[in-house]
């Protein structure tokens, strides 16, 4: 059994826009969400800038009851609930007000680590010998599946409700997992997405690895430079993206708006063998992942007209372009348009795949390829692989047909999903 | 502290934990937190912490076990305040 799967709802809580309207506008303009973070400066971080969604306090009241807000100290849950509930509404779906769980609706919402600030609170109390003062919300805000649990309860879903975690591939992996489950007939509707907490306790480890830019603390919007010769590391970010995946049958029955179709995808790992390691990708696996995603989608590599890469703004960007080029067997002017949203959003870690997928899908709606920022100086090795015309520096009018979106992550894990403009 | 003042302070704490189908006017001296007010056991843990903060007292495990009704809570708060 293999059924067609479509996207009927989107939601986002991103550093450069909370909600689809603001986010779309920011992408059209290339508006940066990367800002100076006083807390990082105070704590003596090398990189004192980050991409953090600006969530107004009164907005949170629309999503959480006063009781839920008490002691709520998990930014990932706030972002995930905002994006998730928005996507659900955007799909024209309602909260389940009946007494019966919605058996054919599920949640597959990932994260890397959840509720770190809440966990810090707990650690202090426990170390003071005061474990009794933790209260009842310590567990639900710090368990990884806290986010799917919150959303599952809010929406009354009765199908699989779970959290996946695969570093920076998490969001893209979730879309493919949701696609698989729906196409196999095990669910009709799945809210998928991912979220990542803000703050020094999430970002500190990357600063310590010395992989974040340190020269842009006074110039945050220029810091993240995917595909550029002056790329010097990724800027950490946070937030959440959410997508409602649905069987075509169900979407048609409901008369839902369809953003795009998910044709399929592939998830794999390089086994940390060959050139692969905990932190570096095995190119053989990356190429295989891209190739298989094309195969699984029943299309030809030549049909892909837009790519949204992982492209974090490190020296590895060149290798990624090379891997796409080899996997698709396309180069020079024959290469698809390619963009990276990390130039304006930063690298939202576990939330990256879902936020960027929301952005990717919006290109179908807006009939554009969103611009790349901070890469006027395209890396010469990239220019030797693909034509610079493939890397739009301005948002360009284009009606995308098939977009490939990939994410790669620590642990040598890869995910590539294929989206297609919807037609009956 | 007057009994009335104590009772109102306690009611203010309980208010936020009431489920949608229970209102603050349903709270009476002999209300059972879980059976009458439908407050779940996890939230009872939080009510205890709020009581500690509001009255600047400390409740032990035994006190928590005994705190089943609004009256129980009032009595425990009284005892703790007197022994301060």
Kindly describe this structure.
The complex is a heterodimer of chains A (424) and B (84). Chain A is an alpha/beta fold and 424 residues long. Chain A has 2 domains: 5-260, Peroxisomal Thiolase, Chain A, domain 1 (3-Layer(aba) Sandwich), CATH 3.40.47; 265-420, Thiolase/Chalcone synthase (Peroxisomal Thiolase, Chain A, domain 1), CATH 3.40.47. Helix content of chain A is 34%, strand content 19%. Chain A has helices at residues 20-29, 38-42, 57-60, 66-69, 75-90, 116-127, 138-142, 146-155, 170-183, 200-208, 248-254, 283-296, 316-328, 342-345, 352-366, 380-383; strands at residues 5-14, 17-18, 34-36, 49-51, 105-111, 161-162, 189-196, 239-247, 260-269, 306-308, 337-339, 368-369, 396-397, 402-409, 413-420. In chain A, a hairpin with a 2-residue loop joins strand 1 and strand 2 (17-18). Chain A is globular, with a radius of gyration of 20 Å. The mean pLDDT of chain A is 97. Chain B has 4 helices and no strands. Chain B is 56% helix and 0% strand. In chain B, helix 1 crosses helix 2. Classes of the chains: A alpha/beta (424), B mainly alpha (84). At the A-B interface, loops of A face helix 2 of B.
């Amino acid at each position: 059994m293999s059924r067609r799967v479509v996207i009927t709802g989107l939601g986002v809580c991103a550093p450069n826009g909370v909600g689809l309207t603001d986010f779309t506008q920011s992408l059209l303009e290339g508006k940066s969400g990367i800002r100076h973070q006083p807390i990082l400066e105070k704590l003596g971080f090398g990189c004192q800038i980050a991409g953090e969604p600006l969530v107004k306090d009164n907005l949170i009241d629309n999503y959480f009851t006063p009781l839920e807000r008490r002691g709520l100290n998990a930014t990932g849950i706030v972002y995930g609930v905002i994006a998730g509930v928005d996507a659900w509404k955007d799909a024209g779906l309602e909260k389940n007000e009946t007494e019966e769980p919605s058996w054919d609706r599920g949640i597959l919402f990932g994260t890397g680590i959840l509720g770190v600030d809440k966990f810090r609170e707990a650690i202090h109390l426990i170390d003071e010998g005061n474990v009794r003062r933790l209260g009842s919300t310590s567990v639900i805000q710090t368990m990884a599946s806290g986010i799917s649990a919150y959303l599952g309860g809010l929406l009354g879903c009765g199908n699989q409700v779970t959290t996946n975690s695969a570093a920076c591939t998490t969001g893209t992996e979730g879309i493919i997992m949701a696609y698989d489950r729906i196409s196999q007939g095990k669910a009709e509707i799945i809210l998928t997405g991912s979220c990542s907490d803000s703050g020094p306790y999430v970002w500190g480890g990357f600063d310590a690895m010395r992989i974040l830019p340190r020269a842009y603390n006074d110039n945050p919007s220029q810091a993240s430079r995917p595909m550029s010769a002056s790329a010097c590391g990724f800027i950490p970010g946070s937030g959440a993206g959410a997508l409602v995946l649905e069987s075509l049958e169900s979407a048609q029955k409901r008369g839902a708006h369809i953003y795009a179709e998910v044709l399929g995808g592939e998830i794999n790992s390089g086994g940390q063998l060959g050139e692969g390691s905990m932190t570096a990708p095995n190119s053989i696996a990356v190429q295989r992942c891209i190739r298989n995603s094309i195969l699984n989608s029943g299309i030809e590599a030549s049909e892909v007209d837009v790519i949204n890469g992982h492209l974090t703004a490190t020296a590895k960007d060149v290798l990624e372009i090379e891997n796409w080029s080899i996997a698709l067997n396309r180069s020079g002017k024959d290469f698809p348009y390619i963009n990276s949203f990390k130039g304006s959003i930063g690298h939202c870690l576990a939330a990256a795949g879902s936020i960027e997928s929301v952005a990717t899908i919006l290109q179908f709606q807006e009939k554009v390829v969103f611009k790349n920022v901070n890469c006027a100086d395209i890396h010469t090795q990239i220019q030797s692989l693909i034509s610079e015309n493939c890397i739009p520096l301005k948002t360009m009018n284009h009606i995308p047909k098939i977009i490939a979106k990939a994410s790669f992550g620590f642990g040598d894990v890869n995910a590539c999903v294929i989206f297609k403009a919807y037609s009956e | 502290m007057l009994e009335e003042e104590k009772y109102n302070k306690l009611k203010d704490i309980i208010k936020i934990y009431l489920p949608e189908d229970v209102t603050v006017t349903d709270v009476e001296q002999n209300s059972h937190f879980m059976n009458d007010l439908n407050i779940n056991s996890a939230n009872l843990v939080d009510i205890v912490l709020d009581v500690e903060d509001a009255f600047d007292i400390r409740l032990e495990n035994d006190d928590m076990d005994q705190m089943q009704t609004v009256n129980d809570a009032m009595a425990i708060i009284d005892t703790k305040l007197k022994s301060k």
